[in-house]
Structures are given as C-alpha cells and as structure tokens.
Design brief:
Belongs to the annexin family. By secondary structure, the protein is mainly alpha-helical. It folds into two domains: about 10-80, Annexin V, domain 1 (Orthogonal Bundle), CATH 1.10.220.10; about 85-150, Annexin (Annexin V, domain 1), CATH 1.10.220.10. The protein has ten helices and no strands. It has helices spanning about 10-25, 30-40, 40-55, 60-65, 70-80, 85-95, 100-110, 115-130, 130-140, 140-150. Helix 1 packs antiparallel against helix 2 (about 30-40), helix 6 (about 85-95) packs parallel to helix 9 and helix 9 (about 130-140) packs antiparallel against helix 10. The protein starts with 11 loop residues before the first helix and ends with a helix.
Length: about 150
C-alpha cells in the first residue's frame, strides 16, 4: 500500500490557485509546489491538472516544466503523470537511442496486469504516436522479444 493517501480536505480549485500563485511573478515558491503535489493522491493530482486548465486556460505541466529544473523538475513532473503515462515514458526511454535498457522493460512489463498494460499501450500511442509493440519488437529479439510482445 502506498504512503501517499488522498487528502481529506481536498479542493482541486484551491490547489490549482496555490500552484499558480507559486509560479506567478518573479521566482518560484518550490516549497508550495512540493507541499501540494506530494500531499495529494495521483487521482487528486489529475483533478488539479484539469482545474488548473479550466481556471487559468494554461497547461500546468508546461508551467511546472518552465518553472522547475533538475531533479526537482523530474520528480514533480513524474508525479503529475498517471501511472500509465509514467510507465510509457520509462519504456520509451528504455528503447530510445543506442542500446536497450532491458531491465526497465522487464521490470515494467512483467509486473503489470493486463489492464495496466492496456493503459500503458494507450498512453504510449497518445504520447509518441507509435505502437509500443512495434517499438519493443524493433528493439528486442528472440525469446525476449516474444515474451515482451505476448505480455
């Protein structure tokens, strides 16, 4: 069971306002961003993304990306993704460029159920406009390829 539980007094509009205030003007209140993002469940963070867009007409992910940098940016942006989007991103990184990070492929594909893998496939297609199966097939071979594709 995860350690991040849904916030009891959750208000997506209020959280969106806190995040906007933290990024508006000179400087960035990283503490406020950390406080909101780390104290909400993933489902609540997805609601905040929608509320931010509805309230400000802006993409929260793009604003966070422009305001944060380094390890903090990677962490916060990763937390703002759905689990399927995060897995799709990690799979893409594992097959991109020279060489394949087979340990990442194994860790993700062998530990997810069919429903989760279907969601990852959808997220991968939406993000990269390519089929996960095609990318896995072109980057692997032999029995390993057959196992990954069958998963």
């Amino acid at each position: 069971r995860g350690t991040v539980q849904p916030a009891a007094s959750f208000n997506d509009d209020g959280d969106a306002q806190v995040l906007r205030k933290a990024m508006k003007g000179l400087g960035t209140d990283e503490g406020a961003i950390i406080e909101v993002v780390t104290q909400r469940s993933n489902a609540q963070r997805q609601q905040i993304l929608k509320a931010y867009k509805a309230h400000y007409g802006r993409d929260l992910m793009a604003d966070l990306k422009s305001e944060l940098s380094g390890s903090l940016a990677k962490l916060i942006l990763g937390l703002m993704l759905t689990p399927a989007q995060y897995d799709a991103k990690q799979l893409r990184k594992a097959v991109e460029g020279a060489g394949t990070d087979e340990s990442v492929l194994i860790e993700i594909m062998a530990t997810r159920n069919n429903q989760e893998i279907a969601a990852i496939n959808t997220a991968y297609q939406e993000a990269y406009h390519k089929s996960l199966e095609d990318d896995l097939s072109s980057d692997t071979s032999g029995h390993f390829k057959r196992i990954l594709v069958s998963l």
